[in-house]
Design brief:
Distance between the termini: 28 Å
Number of strands: 3
Structural class: alpha/beta
Shape: globular
Strand order of the largest sheet: 1-2-3
Largest sheet: 3 strands, parallel
Length: about 70
């Protein structure tokens, strides 16, 4: 089983391209887990819209407060 973990924070500029790259690998993952650090842009909306057509599992974890690096 292949899992991909993504940490995001205001990544709307690159999240679509990053996700499409992950999904177009020779062996795509079975699941993608996203942990978002209180993005104030539409990073999670883009992630959800882009991953809707994918059959794998997605889990989104949203921090309640910005934890930083």
């Amino acid at each position: 089983m292949i899992s991909v973990a993504l940490c995001t924070y205001n990544g709307s500029k690159h999240i679509r391209e990053q996700l499409e790259s992950i999904l177009n690998q020779k062996m795509p993952p079975h699941e993608i887990v996203v942990c978002d650090d209180c993005s104030s842009d539409n990073t999670l909306d883009i992630f959800q819209n882009t991953s809707n057509s994918w059959d794998g599992a997605t889990t989104i974890i949203c921090n309640e407060i910005n934890l930083g690096y």
